[in-house]
Structures are given as structure tokens and as C-alpha cells.
Protein: Thermopsin
Amino acid sequence: SLYPVTVVATGIAPGTGWTLTLSNGVSVVSAGASVSLPLVNGTYGFRASAPGEGRIPVVGQFSVAGAPLALSIAFRPFLSPVTFEETGLPNGTAWTIHFENGTLLTSTGPTISIDQANGSYAYTVSAADGSYGSPGGTYRVDGAPLAEMVRFTRPMYDVEFLPTGVAAGTPWWLALTGRNRTISP
Structure:
């Protein structure tokens, strides 16, 4: 006798094509959330895949024992390591990656790593020493490890010194952080 087996998939977008392959050689392609097929009693291995969605294949087995069977499977995203490499900060300075979804990652070392699903991401960065800045950026994860460079810099500002009480044409000097500089009018 044949008994209906229904496999319901979650974790993929509606309308996404996925394939269910059984150990007896039967293979079914679906663009819906479920697949139904008649099977005789027995134990079956299966592999479900959604190659266009960046999802990890689901592998398992089930047994038909004289009754209809409903089986649920959950596709999970394939994750790739993303490493942020910082330059420009003094050693030991804490810095933080801010993602659009609210995730924050902080480190006092030169790198921050996270595993992420395929897709595009935007981020901003900050440092505990607020005198350093970096513009952040965007990147795309596409099924492979990725390195993203984060360059911190200190902004430069023009400062104008206007002396008073100095006769016109008289050279004068200015000391900044221990460095003397003679300034001629």
C-alpha cells in the first residue's frame, strides 16, 4: 500500500524553488512550502536543498509505517566569516562596529569577526577615543570569507594664532607639545 508523506519546508522565501531527493532515487522539485508524495512502508533517507537561496541542505531520514506522515524541515542560512581589520588606533583602544539591525561588536584588538548570511550590509564604527573617526561602509557577503578594512584617522584642523603686544616685524615663537616654532611676520 501507498501512504501520503508530506514534507513542509520553512526558512526560505515564498515561491523559492527547492528539491527533495530520497534514498530510493525519487526527486521532487517544488516552488511551494510543501511536497507530498505516496510511499510504501520503509525507512527513507532524504536531502532537501535550495541552492539559489544560500541555505544549508537539510539531511535526515524518516519511516513510513502504515499511516500518513507529516515531516517538517527548516532551512538555515549558510554563514560566511566576515573579519573587520582596524588600522590607525593606538594599541588597546576599544572600537565598535554598529550594524543597521542594532547589533554591536566591540574589541580592543585589531580585528572583529562575525558569521553572516549572504546579503548586503551597512555599518558605522566608533572608537572609545572620540578623537579618532572612520566613515564606516557597506559590503556584500556572497558565500565566501570576507575581510573588511576599517581605517581610523584623526581629523586635522587649521588653527590660527594672532599675537598681541608684539611690535610689527618682530619674530615670535610658539611652543606646541614641547616643540618650538619660530614664526616670522
